[in-house]
Amino acid sequence: MSKEVPFKVRWLSGGVPDHWQIVEPRRIFKLVKEPERPGDIHLTPSQKYGVLPQEEYMKITGARVVQNLSGTQMQHVEPGDFISHLRTFQGGLELATMPGKVSPAYTVLRPTEAVYPGFFKHVLKSPGYISQIASVTDQLRDGQTMRYNEFNLTWLPLPPLDEQKKIADELDRELTEIDEFIADQYRLLNLEAYSKVDTHPTPTN
C-alpha cells in the first residue's frame, strides 16, 4: 500500500478488515457513455427514492421535472449501473434497478464482476463517503455532477464478493426492520391521537 492511500481512504475512519482490499475506483467501476436505445424510459435519480421512472417521480413528489429537449441524446443505463447526478454531493450515487435512459449531464458508472451492486449501494451513500467526495472537489457544491476523474479521487473498500453479498443482505434486512418499526410507531401515534378524540355527540337540551 502506497503512502498516499491512507489520505484517500481517510473517510473509512473505523478501518477495514485485513483481508479487504482498498482500491482505486477505476479498477472496479468503468465510465460508460452508451446512447439511449429505442423504447428506453426516462429515469430520474433522486436521493430519497433512488432511480425511478420520471413520470412516477413526478406523481410521488408533485414536482415538475424539466423534460428532455428534442434532439438531445440521452444515456442508456442498465440495472446495476450507478449514477452521479446533480445532488450527488448531498446524497451519494444512486443505483439503477431497471434499464432506461438518463440525462447526458449525469455520469454513469458500470461495475465490474468484482462488485456486488447491493453492497456498494450502501457504501456510495454512506455519510463518510458523501463527506469525503464533498471535500475533494468544489464543483460538487455548485450543483454539478461528479465527473469520473473526481469519482476516482476517493478510494473504496473491496471485500471478497461473497462477503459483499452477505453484508448487503444484512444491511437490507436491518433497514427493513427499522422502516417497519418506524411505520408501527406512526400507527400507534395515530391510534393514540384518534382515541383522544371524543367521537360521541354532546347531548343537548
Plain-language structure description:
- This protein has 205 residues and is α+β, with helices and mostly antiparallel strands.
- It has 2 domains: 5-159, DNA methylase specificity domains (Adenine-n6-DNA-methyltransferase TaqI, Chain A, domain 2); 160-198.
- Helix content is 35%, strand content 17%.
- It contains 7 helices and 10 strands.
- It has helices spanning 5-8, 54-61, 88-91, 117-123, 127-136, 148-151, 161-195; strands spanning 21-23, 29-32, 43-46, 50-53, 75-77, 82-84, 94-95, 100-102, 107-111, 156-158.
- The protein has a 4-stranded antiparallel beta sheet with strand order 2-9-6-7, covered by helices on one side. It has a two-stranded antiparallel sheet with strand order 1-10.
- A hairpin with a 3-residue loop joins strand 3 and strand 4.
- Helix 4 crosses helix 7 (161-195).
- Residues 1-5 have low confidence and may be disordered.
- This is Restriction endonuclease subunit S.
- Keywords: DNA-binding, Endonuclease, Hydrolase, Nuclease, Restriction system.
- One of its GO terms (molecular function) is endonuclease activity.
How many DSSP E strands?
A: 10
Proportion of residues in β-strands: 15-25%
Question: How would you describe the shape?
Answer: globular
CATH domain topology of the largest domain: Adenine-n6-DNA-methyltransferase TaqI, Chain A, domain 2
* Adjacency order of strands in the biggest sheet: 2-9-6-7
Query: Could you state the CATH homologous superfamily of the largest domain?
Result: DNA methylase specificity domains
Number of helices: 7
Mean pLDDT: 84
Domain module count = 2
Sheet with most strands: 4 strands, antiparallel
H/E element sequence: HEEEEHEEHEEEHHHEH
